[in-house]
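in:
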C-alpha cells in the first residue's frame, strides 16, 4: 500500500477541471491548442483524450473496467510557443483517499510556471476499482500522447516526474517506463519518500543504462513522521547503491510537505541552470559524498598511517558543475566518534581537500576511513589524518566551502547532518576547535 499523505496537505485537494490562474501570469491565449482547446498561460485546462490499445491493456490490469478516454490536465507558462522546446513536469499523487494526479498540481504549479515548465497530468474519467500502477501508466501515457499530437516535436521535450509520499513512489515506478517508451527523462522530484521503488521500476521496465544518469532530487522534512529523515536517508543510499549517479537529498525544518524553495531548486537543477551568483546559490552544483568499500580507484587517494593495501571502507567525494564555472572548492571530511551513546562526540580524524573545477564538469576523490587509534596525535600529523581518542566510531561529516562560506553539508546519518548544519546540541565548530587544540599539544 502506498504511504498516506498527511492530513495537512489534503485541504489542497481542489478540483482542477476548471481554471486555476497562477499569480503574475497573464491569461492571454497563445494561439496554441491542446486537443483543440486554446491554452492560456497560467491556467489549467482539462480535456478528454483517447486511450491507445496499449494503454487500454495497462488500464485493464487486475480486472479494472477499461474506459475509452482519459482526462488530461495541462498548464503552460507565459510566453509559451510550441515551436520551441519546453520542459514538462509530470505530476503523480498517492492513491490513498481516492486521490488523483490532478489533485496535486497546486503543490508544484506556481514554481513550475515561474521556471517556464509545463505541468501535465493524466487521470481516468472515474476512479478505478483497483488503483494500479498500470492504471496510472495508461492515463499518463494518454496525456503525453495528446501533448505530442497537439505540439509536433514535443516528444523530444525533457520530462521530469514529481510526487510526494505515495506520489513519489508512483514517480519512481513510472519514470523508467516513460524512459523505456522513448521519453527524455530529465529528473525525478521526490518529496517525503520512505521506500525505494525506483530500483523496482528500473528492474521491471529496463530502460537504457543512461537512465542511471537521471537527476534525482529528494526532499526530507526533519519533523516528518510519515517519511522520517532516517527512512529518507536510506532511500538515498539505496538509489546510489542501485547505480544512480546524480542523487541529491535536501532537508527542511517542517514535516511532510512539498517545500516550494526546494521545488525551484529541483527544477533549475534538472534544466542545468548556469551559475549566476557563485556556486553557493547554484542548485546545479553537486557535492556528493558516499561511503563505499573496496580498493581505491587511485584518483587523488589520501593515505592514512598504518592503512594496508587491503580492501577497506572509503569515502567517495564527487564535485560536479555542469556550467564549468565554479570557483575553487574546499572540502573537509571530519570523522566522528564517541565513547558510548551517552557521552559527547569528538573528532578523531579529518581530511582536507581543495579542488579547482574551472573548466571541468566533475572531479572525484576517494578518502580512506581511518581507524580509531588510542594514541595521542603528534604535532606533525600524517597527510590528511590525525588520530585521537578512543571509542566506537560514530560516522562522518563532510562540508564544502567556497570563498570561506559553507554551502553544502553531507553526513553519514541524519543525526550527524544536524550536527554539521548547526541544528544539534553538538556543535561542529566546537568539536573542530577542540580537535585543533589537540593537534597543538
Amino acid at each position: 500500500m502506498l504511504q498516506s499523505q498527511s492530513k495537512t496537505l489534503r485541504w489542497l485537494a481542489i478540483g482542477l477541471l476548471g481554471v486555476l490562474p497562477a499569480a503574475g501570469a497573464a491569461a492571454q491565449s497563445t494561439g496554441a491548442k491542446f486537443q483543440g482547446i486554446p491554452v492560456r498561460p497560467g491556467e489549467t485546462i482539462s480535456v478528454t483524450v483517447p486511450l491507445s490499445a496499449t494503454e487500454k491493456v495497462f488500464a485493464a490490469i487486475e480486472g479494472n473496467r477499461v474506459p475509452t478516454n482519459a482526462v488530461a490536465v495541462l498548464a503552460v507558462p507565459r510566453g509559451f510557443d510550441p515551436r520551441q522546446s519546453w520542459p514538462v513536469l509530470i505530476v503523480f499523487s498517492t492513491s490513498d483517499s481516492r486521490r488523483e494526479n490532478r489533485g496535486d498540481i497546486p503543490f508544484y504549479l506556481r514554481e513550475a510556471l515561474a521556471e517556464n515548465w509545463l505541468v501535465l497530468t493524466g487521470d481516468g474519467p472515474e476512479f478505478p476499482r483497483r488503483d494500479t500502477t498500470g492504471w496510472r501508466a495508461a492515463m499518463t501515457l494518454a496525456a503525453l500522447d495528446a501533448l505530442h499530437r497537439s505540439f509536433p516535436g514535443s516528444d523530444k521535450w525533457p520530462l521530469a516526474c514529481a510526487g510526494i509520499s505515495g506520489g513519489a513512489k508512483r514517480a519512481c515506478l513510472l519514470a523508467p517506463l516513460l524512459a523505456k517508451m522513448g521519453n527524455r527523462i530529465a529528473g525525478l522530484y521526490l518529496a517525503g519518500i520512505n521506500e525505494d521503488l525506483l530500483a523496482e521500476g528500473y528492474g521491471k521496465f529496463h530502460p537504457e543504462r543512461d537512465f542511471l544518469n537521471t537527476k534525482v532530487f529528494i526532499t526530507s522534512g526533519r519533523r516528518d513522521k510519515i517519511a522520517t529523515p532516517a527512512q529518507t536517508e536510506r532511500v538515498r543510499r539505496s538509489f546510489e547503491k542501485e547505480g544512480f549517479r546524480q542523487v541529491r537529498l535536501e532537508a527542511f525544518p517542517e514535516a511532510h510537505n512539498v517545500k516550494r524553495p526546494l521545488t525551484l531548486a529541483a527544477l533549475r537543477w534538472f534544466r542545468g541552470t548556469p551559475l549566476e551568483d557563485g556556486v553557493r546559490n547554484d542548485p546545479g552544483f553537486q557535492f556528493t559524498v558516499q561511503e563505499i568499500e573496496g580498493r581505491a580507484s587511485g584518483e587523488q587517494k589520501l593515505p592514512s598511517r598504518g592503512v594496508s593495501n587491503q580492501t577497506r571502507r572509503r569515502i567517495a567525494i564527487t564535485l560536479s558543475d555542469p556550467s564549468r564555472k565554479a570557483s575553487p572548492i574546499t572540502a573537509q571530511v571530519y570523522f566522528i566518534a564517541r565513547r558510548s551513546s551517552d557521552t559527547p562526540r569528538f573528532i578523531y580524524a579529518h581530511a582536507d581537500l581543495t579542488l579547482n573545477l574551472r573548466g571541468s564538469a566533475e572531479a572525484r576523490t576517494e578518502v580512506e576511513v581511518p581507524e580509531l587509534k588510542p594514541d595521542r596525535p603528534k604535532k606533525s600529523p600524517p597527510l590528511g589524518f590525525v588520530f585521537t581518542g578512543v571509542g566506537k566510531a560514530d560516522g562522518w561529516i563532510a562540508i564544502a566551502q567556497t570563498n570561506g562560506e559553507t554551502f553544502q553539508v553531507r553526513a553519514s546519518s541524519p543525526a550527524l547532518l544536524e550536527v554539521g548544519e548547526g541544528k544539534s546540541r553538538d556543535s561542529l565548530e566546537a568539536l573542530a576547535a577542540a580537535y585543533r587544540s589537540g593537534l597543538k599539544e
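note: The chain has a mean pLDDT of 80.
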